[in-house]
Structure formats: structure tokens, C-alpha cells
């Protein structure tokens, strides 16, 4: 097996599909260990968000291609699930090294398709890589339990076993990290995997599949299909697929949770967010303002854990002008340009949506303190840029507060006390992440205990847990009962078999059939 792999994108993409007269490259499917051109009659344009140029085309996979992919997963499951756990671990040990070796290549492809800055794109890959590294601990993670001498000569023990074919449906905002939350954890447990990347950023997932193949994953253990609703429905309905991991919007996530569950599948569905940063007047002002600005506007606010809402408590209200001043220093530019802090949004529609939410805030009586709607980026006039925007005087009924904006917009509310702030956060339908900024331990403790949100940071603006823990979004941000990665991820991708056995030194013969319920006592 190669210890090194250099991504050669030519292998994966073909200039000029037979279905298109255009010379734009087409994104291939990954079926049964081969990168293949789709026979699709419908294709989706992929744009560079900084320029809106079409850079490639992705197919809407045909039913035949999707069936071939799932059949390949099912065939591969027979041998992969029986492959020794040490051999599976070795694949992921090699995989983590190959991802590290190719992190810059992967980041470049993320920036071109998704728009985020190169540094941020490397972070995207890195946070996914950490999950792969964690998957390498599978020999401990997948241990069952034992209890000897349940009764005389009788022992009980459990195995964790893979489910079969699992599937992942990914969003556009983390082209590397989120697919890497999915198939490595699923596969290392012995499942085979069908991935449907976001149709807006499919290339990174295909490159990750190439690296996985180079790391020694057998043909069919990972298959990739492309598309939109038809591909999603195919996954929700196909009887061979046992579990679905979804990350994306509430609209899609609730639908997939219902349709997949109805068909008897396990579904974990990570969805939208409205993350509040509560700023106490005793906080370290310098750190807090810097952290707020970074967490609100990094990745142009297109992170599910972005701190998109600030609640200034008591005298911290007076910090607002300084928050605005610091934000003005951020540089809006194409993600591959040196010094860029805030890249473009994913699409003109996303830009239009964000701008209309800013307008709605103004119409409803909020005050736009910093307005990024008319930002100009020289050389990238056609890009989907919105500059950092701060909206003050916001009340909980306004649309800019009730809806997820998913752009570089910070809405600011005020509260008299910590209790008022907690009340606000708990009244919001989403429960993904939150942070409190304070130097008082008792305040922090009260907040972490009383707030009803899955992931809480204390002076940590984006508390995305490392993979030895799980990503624990809750309430309107999550459907399902087992979260992504960590112990819960292993639980999601395995089922438990419990074995009770009795071995007597001398086999005593029963005097007659025991027809009463065995009590094992
Ligand atoms: P999206 O829901 O539009 O797309 C996600 C996936 O679902 C894509 O693969 C897409 O093809 C498919 N899809 C889209 N609409 C669908 C529909 N109506 N029916 C069936 N399938 C559909 O999400 P997005 O715009 O790519 O991602 C942004 C969203 O994801 C935001 O809401 C963000 O908060 C959320 N997100 C959540 C987390 C988390 O862990 N909670 C992480 C990242 C992103």
C-alpha cells in the first residue's frame, strides 16, 4: 500500500461530459472502487462563490447508479464486517496520514467551491482529521461488556456489531469535516458507507474517497453518489440502508428524519442553529470582543456553531460601539486572497436571503449599526459578498432573531440580568451551541446548569467538542437520540448482541422441562 498519495484531480474529473457541450469538468461518482462518469441527463452547475463562474458540473445520479452504489456497499459489507478490527484500524491509521499530507490540496478545493478562506478551509479539514484519528482508537471504543457468574456457571457478555450499509447526507458549509464525521466512524465499526455530499461542494468528498482508497479501504466499502432530492429520497427509502446521518437545514433534516425513521432506519439529524453569546459585565473585555467578532463573522457566519446572537448583560451594553469598531477591521475578500477574513456566501440566493433579513430588521425597528450589504470587493464584483453586519435594538419577535441567518450578521439583544439572558436563550427554539463570557465561576456554573443548549462554552466562543466527546446539539437543532462521533457515534453505528452462556464442569442432566420463566437466580 502506498504510504503517500498526491491528489491528482485529473483522475477524478473529466473535462467535458458527454451530456454537456461545455468544457467544464464533471464530478465523478465513486462506485465499487471506481471513479466513474455519470450517465445522468440532469447536471447541476458548481460555482466559485467569489466570482460566480461555473467551475464544474455535478450529476444528479440515475436510479441505476444509486442502486449500483448501494449494491456495492452491501457486497462489501460481507467481507468488511468480517475483516479484523486491527486491519480496519490500519486503514484509518494510514488514512489520517494521507489527509495530513494532502491538507493544503484539500483546503484549496474547499476554498474554490465553498468560498471560505484558505486558513479556515485547513481548519475544516483538520477538525475532520481529528475524527479520523479518533476512529483509530476503535479497538477500545468497540469493546463490549462482560459480567461473569450471573448465576452458577453462567456468564453474560455483549458484542458491538456493525449495522450493515449506512448512509450520510452532508451540507455545503464543511465540505471536509462533516463527511469525515460520517464515513470514518461508520466504516471503522465494520459498516460500509454510501455518501451523498452537498451538490454545491462535492469535490472535497471525492478527493477524500481517493485518499481512503489509497489508504487501503477495499472496493465498495465507501460509495459516493451525487444529487439532490431524488438521491435523498433514495437513501431514505432503500431497504438495504440501515442508518442515516444527516447534517444540514431543518427543512431537510426534519423531512429526512421522518421519512428515514418511518422506513425503520436509525436517523441522526443535526440541523440549524441560533447560537447566543452572553456577555457579562465582569468578562475580560478585550478577549470577549475579539472572540465575539471571530465567532460571529468567521466563515462568513456560515457555521452551525457561529455565535450569531449576542446578549449584552447590564453594563456590558456599553461595549457595543467598540464591538462595531473592531468588526470594521475585518477584511472582506475572496478566500484565496492573502489577508482575507470574511469570504463570500455560498450563492447569490444566500446573499439575497441574508440581505432581506437585514432589511426586515430595519423595517421592524432594529438599528443596523454596521451594514455590509453594499460591500465592494475589487476584482470580485460578481461574488456573493456581504460585509460584516451588526444589528442592535433587536427584540425576540423580529425575523432576524427568529430565523437562522447563516451569514456574517450579528444580532445584538440586551438583558438586565443573567436570569433574563438565560430566559431568552431557553426561549429560542434552537439548542445547538452557546457561550458565556465572564470571570465569575458562580455565574458560569449557573449558566452552564440552567441553559438548555447542547454545547456550552465558558469563555470559549465555538465549543465544538473534540471527537472523544460527541457533538451534542439539542432541541430544534437535533433529531434522533444518538449524536455524532464520540461514544454516541459508536453507539449509533453499532448494535449490541448479548450472549448468556452456561458451561458446567460436569453437565448435570435436567430432571424435566423447566416451563417457568428462568430467573437465573
Ligand atoms: P441543506 O439542508 O440545504 O442541505 C443539506 C443536504 O440536504 C444536502 O446534501 C442537500 O442536497 C439535501 N437537501 C437540501 N434540501 C433538501 C430537501 N428539501 N429535501 C431533501 N434533501 C435536501 O443545508 P445546507 O444549506 O447545505 O447547510 C446549511 C445548514 O446546515 C444550516 O442550517 C446549518 O445550521 C446546518 N448545519 C448544521 C450543523 C450541525 O451540526 N447542527 C452543521 C453544519 C451545518
From TrEMBL:
<dbReference type="GO" id="GO:0006210">
    <property type="term" value="P:thymine catabolic process"/>
</dbReference>
<dbReference type="Pfam" id="PF00171">
    <property type="entry name" value="Aldedh"/>
</dbReference>
<dbReference type="GO" id="GO:0004491">
    <property type="term" value="F:methylmalonate-semialdehyde dehydrogenase (acylating, NAD) activity"/>
</dbReference>
<dbReference type="InterPro" id="IPR016162">
    <property type="entry name" value="Ald_DH_N"/>
</dbReference>
<dbReference type="InterPro" id="IPR010061">
    <property type="entry name" value="MeMal-semiAld_DH"/>
</dbReference>
<keyword id="KW-0520">NAD</keyword>
<dbReference type="InterPro" id="IPR016160">
    <property type="entry name" value="Ald_DH_CS_CYS"/>
</dbReference>
<dbReference type="InterPro" id="IPR016161">
    <property type="entry name" value="Ald_DH/histidinol_DH"/>
</dbReference>
<feature type="domain" description="Aldehyde dehydrogenase">
    <location>
        <begin position="35"/>
        <end position="499"/>
    </location>
</feature>
<dbReference type="InterPro" id="IPR016163">
    <property type="entry name" value="Ald_DH_C"/>
</dbReference>
<keyword id="KW-0560">Oxidoreductase</keyword>
<dbReference type="InterPro" id="IPR015590">
    <property type="entry name" value="Aldehyde_DH_dom"/>
</dbReference>
<comment type="function">
    <text>Malonate and methylmalonate semialdehyde dehydrogenase involved in the catabolism of valine, thymine, and compounds catabolized by way of beta-alanine, including uracil and cytidine.</text>
</comment>
<protein>
    <recommendedName>
        <fullName>Methylmalonate-semialdehyde/malonate-semialdehyde dehydrogenase [acylating], mitochondrial</fullName>
        <ecNumber>1.2.1.27</ecNumber>
    </recommendedName>
</protein>
<comment type="similarity">
    <text>Belongs to the aldehyde dehydrogenase family.</text>
</comment>
<dbReference type="GO" id="GO:0005739">
    <property type="term" value="C:mitochondrion"/>
</dbReference>
<dbReference type="GO" id="GO:0006574">
    <property type="term" value="P:L-valine catabolic process"/>
</dbReference>
Amino acid at each position: 500500500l502506498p504510504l503517500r498519495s498526491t491528489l491528482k484531480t485529473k483522475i477524478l474529473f473529466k473535462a467535458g461530459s458527454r451530456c454537456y457541450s461545455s468544457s467544464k469538468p464533471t464530478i465523478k461518482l465513486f462506485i465499487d472502487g471506481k471513479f466513474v462518469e455519470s450517465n445522468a441527463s440532469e447536471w447541476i452547475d458548481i460555482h466559485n462563490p467569489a466570482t460566480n463562474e461555473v467551475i464544474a458540473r455535478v450529476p444528479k445520479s440515475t436510479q441505476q447508479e444509486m442502486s449500483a452504489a448501494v449494491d456495492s456497499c452491501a457486497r462489501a459489507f460481507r467481507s468488511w464486517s468480517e475483516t479484523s478490527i486491527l486491519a480496519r484500524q490500519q486503514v484509518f491509521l494510514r488514512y489520517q496520514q494521507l489527509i495530513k499530507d494532502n491538507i493544503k490540496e484539500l483546503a484549496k478545493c474547499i476554498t474554490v467551491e465553498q468560498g471560505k478562506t484558505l486558513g479556515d478551509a485547513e481548519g475544516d479539514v483538520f477538525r475532520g482529521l481529528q475524527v479520523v484519528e479518533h476512529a483509530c482508537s476503535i479497538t477500545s471504543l468497540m469493546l463490549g461488556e462482560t459480567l461473569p457468574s450471573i448465576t452458577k456457571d453462567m456468564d453474560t457478555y455483549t458484542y458491538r456489531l456493525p449495522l450493515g450499509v449506512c448512509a450520510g447526507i452532508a451540507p455545503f458549509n464543511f465540505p471536509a469535516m462533516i463527511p469525515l464525521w460520517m464515513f470514518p466512524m461508520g466504516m471503522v465499526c465494520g459498516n460500509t458507507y454510501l455518501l451523498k455530499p452537498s451538490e454545491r461542494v462535492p469535490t472535497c468528498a471525492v478527493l477524500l474517497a481517493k485518499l481512503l482508497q489509497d489508504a487501503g479501504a477495499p472496493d465498495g466499502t465507501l460509495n459516493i453518489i451525487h444529487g439532490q432530492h431524488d438521491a435523498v429520497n433514495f437513501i431514505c427509502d432503500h431497504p438495504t440502508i440501515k442508518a442515516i446521518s444527516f447534517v444540514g437545514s431543518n427543512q431537510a433534516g426534519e423531512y429526512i428524519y421522518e421519512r428515514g425513521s418511518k422506513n425503520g432506519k436509525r436517523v441522526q439529524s443535526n440541523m440549524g442553529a441560533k447560537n447566543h453569546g452572553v456577555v457579562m459585565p465582569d468578562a475580560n473585555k478585550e478577549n470577549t470582543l475579539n472572540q465575539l467578532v471571530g465567532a460571529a463573522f468567521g466563515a462568513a457566519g456560515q457555521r452551525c456553531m457561529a455565535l450569531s446572537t449576542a446578549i449584552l448583560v447590564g453594563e456590558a451594553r456599553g461595549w457595543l460601539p467598540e464591538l462595531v469598531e473592531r468588526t470594521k477591521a475585518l477584511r472582506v475578500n475572496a478566500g484565496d486572497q492573502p489577508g482575507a477574513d470574511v469570504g463570500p456566501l455560498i450563492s447569490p440566493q444566500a446573499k439575497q436571503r441574508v440581505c432581506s433579513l437585514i432589511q426586515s430588521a430595519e423595517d421592524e425597528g432594529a438599528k443596523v449599526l454596521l451594514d455590509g450589504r453594499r460591500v465592494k470587493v475589487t476584482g470580485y464584483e460578481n461574488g456573493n459578498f456581504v460585509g460584516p453586519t451588526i444589528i442592535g435594538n433587536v427584540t425576540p419577535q423580529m425575523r432576524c432573531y427568529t430565523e437562522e441567518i447563516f451569514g456574517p450578521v450579528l444580532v445584538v439583544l440586551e438583558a438586565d440580568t443573567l436570569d433574563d439572558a438565560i430566559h431568552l436563550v431557553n426561549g429560542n427554539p434552537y439548542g445547538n451551541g452557546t457561550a458565556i463570557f465572564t470571570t465569575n465561576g458562580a455565574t458560569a456554573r449557573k449558566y452552564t446548569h440552567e441553559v438548555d443548549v447542547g454545547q456550552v462554552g465558558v469563555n470559549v466562543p465555538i465549543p465544538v467538542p473534540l471527537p472523544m466527546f460527541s457533538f451534542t446539539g439539542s432541541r430544534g437543532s437535533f433529531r434522533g437520540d444518538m449524536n455524532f462521533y464520540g461514544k454516541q457515534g459508536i453507539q449509533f453505528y453499532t448494535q449490541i448482541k448479548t450472549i448468556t452462556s452456561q458451561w458446567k464442569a460436569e453437565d448435570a442432566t435436567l430432571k424435566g422441562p423447566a416451563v417457568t420463566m428462568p430467573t437465573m437466580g
